[in-house]
Amino acid sequence: MAVSKTIFDPQPVTLTGNLVRLEPIAPAHAADLYAAGAEELIWRYAARPALSSVADAEGWIKACLEELAEGTRVTFAVVHRETGKAVGSTAYIDIVREHRTLEVGMTWYGTAWQRTGVNTECKYLLLRHAFEDLAARRVSLKSDSRNERSRRAILRLGAVEEGTLRNHRIARDGVDRHTVYYSVIESEWPAVKKRLEGLMRR
C-alpha cells in the first residue's frame, strides 16, 4: 500500500531487527542505560556528560519524554535482543512535519557494542521506517568535525556529506565545534537500503 505523502508524523514505535529492537524510551530503561552509558568516553562529543547514576538516567529519560510531548523528538532505547538489555539510545530529532524531514541523532552505545553490527542495524531500521513508513523526503545526520569515528561510520552507511557549519556551537569542553552535515534523500534510499542490507549480511 502506498504511503500518503500528506501525513508525516513520527511517533513512538517499536522497530525490530535481528540484533536489536528499538523501543520507545521509558523509565524502565534507566538502570540498563546507566550501566551502558556511565563511561565518559562515550559522551566525549556530546552536549552532556556521562550518565552518573540511575537517577540521572531517569532525569535524562524524562527530558526525552518532554521533547516527545512537544513533538520535537522521538527517542528510542536500543535493546540487544539476545540479552534483553538496553545498550544505548538513538532518536529522531529536528522533525519538520510540513517538509517531511528529520534527523537521526543523539545516538550512543555502550563501549562493548561499538564497532559491532548494532549501529548498522539501528540506522537501517530508522531509515527504513522514515522513508518507507513515514514517506520522509530527507533524513540528515551530523557529527562534530573532530569525531573521526562517527564521520567514518556515517559515510559507511552511504550518506552524502553536505558541508560543515563552522563555529556551529561551543562544545562542552569549550572548543568551537564545527558540525559536519550528511543526508540521505528519498531518491537515494533504494541504493542505501541495498548497501546496508549487504553490510548486515557480512
Throw out a few tags for this protein.
single chain, 202 residues, alpha+beta, Aminopeptidase, eight-stranded mixed beta sheet, 31% helix
Describe, in plain words, how this protein is organized in 3D.
The chain has 202 residues and is α+β, with helices and mostly antiparallel strands. It has one domain (15-201): 3-Layer(aba) Sandwich (Aminopeptidase), CATH 3.40.630. Helices cover 31% and strands 32% of the residues. The chain contains 5 helices and 8 strands, in the order E-E-H-H-E-E-E-H-E-H-E-E-H. It has helices spanning 30-36, 54-70, 118-133, 148-157, 189-201, and strands spanning 15-16, 20-24, 73-80, 85-96, 101-109, 138-144, 160-170, 176-185. Strands 1-2-3-4-5-6-8-7 form an 8-stranded mixed β-sheet, with helices on both faces. Helix 1 packs across helix 2 (54-70) and helix 3 (118-133) runs antiparallel to helix 5. The mean pLDDT is 95.
Largest sheet: 8 strands, mixed
Q: Specify the helix fraction band.
A: 25-40%
> Please, what is the oligomeric state?
single chain
Number of domains: 1
> Element order, helices and strands?
EEHHEEEHEHEEH
| CATH homologous superfamily title | Gcn5-related N-acetyltransferase (GNAT)
The count of strands amounts to 8
Can you tell me the CATH architecture?
3-Layer(aba) Sandwich
Instruction: Measure the end-to-end span.
Output: 31 Å
**Beta-strand content:** 25-35%
pLDDT below 50 for ≥5 consecutive residues: which ranges? none
**Main structural class:** alpha+beta
Tally of DSSP helical segments: 5
Overall geometry comes to globular
The CATH topology, please?
A: Aminopeptidase
**Please, what is the average pLDDT?**
95
Query: What is the CA-atom radius of gyration, in angstroms?
Result: 16 Å
